[in-house]
């Protein structure tokens, strides 16, 4: 069945194709209606390749499903939401959210380059998205302005069109010799056919930042041969407009992937620029080659400095990576294999989107999806152009934005009448003695799910999510930590609003309480409310938070208060 004139087809008995809104070399993008949930979605149809043998086409289709399911597990406010992958007439279809807005490429074409503050904001969002994808073993492989969406009204940055055209161990050329990706944004190690890893995505981001700041890639030439030469051997000359962010740009455009600036370091440097107006130097040994990005011996200083700290955002996002959790009590997961080792399950969307399908094909009006990963505001810091984060949320006992009154319990840290020892687990709770070096009381059916520095205890179905993070003290203490987190609330919690940070104490130690409402990560889970207490004690910074649907704030506040009141750093 052809795609021309095929509007109003029903796919998988659920998705009605209404209008073709984009087409590329490998796929067609449709505006569609989800007949089950009554919402508008984007559907990408992978077109058959008649030049391939039948067995090859079947393997390609099977791989598409396997890899699509892996990418469907990604949950991040700056990654396009993939709702479903289905098949009809032996053809795969990818079902995604619709985003109302234009691509970064559209924005540059219509309004010209952006300033350094906006470029830093975009870069932070993309780095955060890439860290989530890379930790899950997913490489993008086609980062360019056309694959970055800017949502109207919120300025949310959304990374779309992940790649599926290549499996682990393959070269950067397909079987037919066609290049996979966009040459002006492709890392030299991929151009040379040597390897593809997370570092290659970071090179592409460096080129994208140059384009956002100046209007064109520093590797643009008149021919493919010229582009290849520019990427692999020519001197790298970032545009003059990149001067405020030059340490980041140079670090990301280091030709040696082992020395290239890492995502955490780059994000820290950009956040520092937004906070101070100055970009710090890259950590020694990372992104510190000579002025043309080709050398190996140009370290800053005489020895390697400690790695820059990861930006402190305790609730970004407030669920662990990797999708649904087991229903049985969870044990610490086995060590994750490297992104290269799991690349077979990783390379999804660019081929499905098509190497020429405009990202603007997804830029349609959303319809009643309850958020679906779209925030209600932009990421903000004191230095951004969009102003400061929302303040003045209703305090305890006041109606929330949804009209649900929040409870009015005692302040966190105030002893509760739970017996002679306030750290005794109340009825219906159990004392979790965590391997991370703390104990606290959690509901009996909550299961543990660690994620790096953070440890989660989750109710069945993840209705209630309790998180704990223990770190070294941070600048500004608990108040400064949560003030900075609240300033970036819209970036880390979709639809963030009514945020409020108040100074308090916990057990005689200085503390701060952050309370806010947000849209949740999908239409199915709906709006949520979060309580977050941060305090310093015995030279450590402790952070405990609970999030829950807005209709269950009383239960959430009870879980939160019990967790805080029974928390002990010496209970292991």
From TrEMBL:
Residues 15-274 form the Protein kinase domain. Residues 326-336, 406-415 have a biased composition (Pro residues). Keywords: ATP-binding, Kinase, Nucleotide-binding, Serine/threonine-protein kinase, Transferase. Residues 278-338, 370-435, 479-503 are annotated as: Disordered. ATP binds at residue 44. PANTHER family: MITOGEN-ACTIVATED PROTEIN KINASE KINASE KINASE 20-RELATED (PTHR43289), SERINE_THREONINE-PROTEIN KINASE NEKL-3 (PTHR43289:SF6). This is non-specific serine/threonine protein kinase. It comes from Streptomyces rameus. The lineage of its organism: Bacteria, Bacillati, Actinomycetota, Actinomycetes, Kitasatosporales.
